[in-house]
Amino acid sequence: MKLVLFEAAGKAIAPGLMTDRGIVDISAAVKLSYTPQLTMTGIIDDFERLRPALEAIAASGAAIPLDQVRLRAPLPRPGKILACIANYWEHAQREPRMLNMFMKNPDAVVGPGDTIMLPEFTVPHMFMHEAELGLVIKGPAKMVQAKDWRKAVFGYTAMIDVSARQDGRRTWPSSPIASWLGKSFDTFGPMGPCITTADEIPEPNDLVVRFWNDGQLRHHYNTDDMEHRVPALVEFATTVMTMNSGDVIMCGTNHEGLGAIQDGETVEIEIQNIGKMALKVRDPLKRSWERGVYMGADSTNPEAVKRHRPQT
Fold first, then answer.
1. pLDDT at residue 175 tops 60
2. Domain containing 12: what range?
3. E-strand stretches of 145-294
4. Element (H, E) at 101
5. Which of 27, 110, 261, 272 could be stapled to 208 by a disulfide with Cβ–Cβ 3.0 to 4.6 Å?
6. Do both 6 and 118 map to the same domain?
């Protein structure tokens, strides 16, 4: 199933299912809470009991055409977002790296059709996109071993880790104490268009991720290229902290195809079996950078869609 939050005909944000027929409202079948985030978290917690009713609604419930609704981020305010640092081989000639993560601001989340607002700072060299697979957690999950990772993963979503960079891959500002703050500005965590439940993606390390900037294909890679794969990410995160339902782990990006985003552009992300969404970019300072790819274009070549990890 593909779970969404949506608005239609001026009504409040409601939970729904994305189907081939359109968006099906499931409000009558689930417990509605004080906020859309809590409603979705409740669905995650109670999903196995709800599944038969949701399957019936998906098959026969009234559907609203997709072009008549506004999709919102499926998890508008996750309790926690843990994001991997790098985590893709990209090229096989380097030494393996240790797994590491940072915390990304949950308030940075926006959804399909929203606007990425570049902040009024003149320090960063530029603002860049990073297209990533997101793991949606079912908790509480603590000390989950890699072999049991499926118990902690409810589903998957697509995310863009918008980043303020000083030069190369360094993140603004250059101080190591605050280096990841440049990824946590408001609107720097686009998510959507849905949560695809785990049963529809049997192997998360075999999904094609694509990203376009004004129609120019930039990211085009397979999650098979992850250096530390999904089971290891779940084990690592839950060793450090308890992950609760509706928390998210961002799996990192393949930096090949990385480039700037700037005022007036439209960006799109698509992940196989999850879906596609588009957002606008606005910059009050109207800055501009050279358009194109800054971190190599290998990932746009068909031969590079699926790589082979170094053999150990």
1. no
2. 2-72
3. 153-160, 163-165, 189-197, 208-213, 216-222, 248-250, 266-271, 275-282
4. strand 101-103
5. 272
6. no
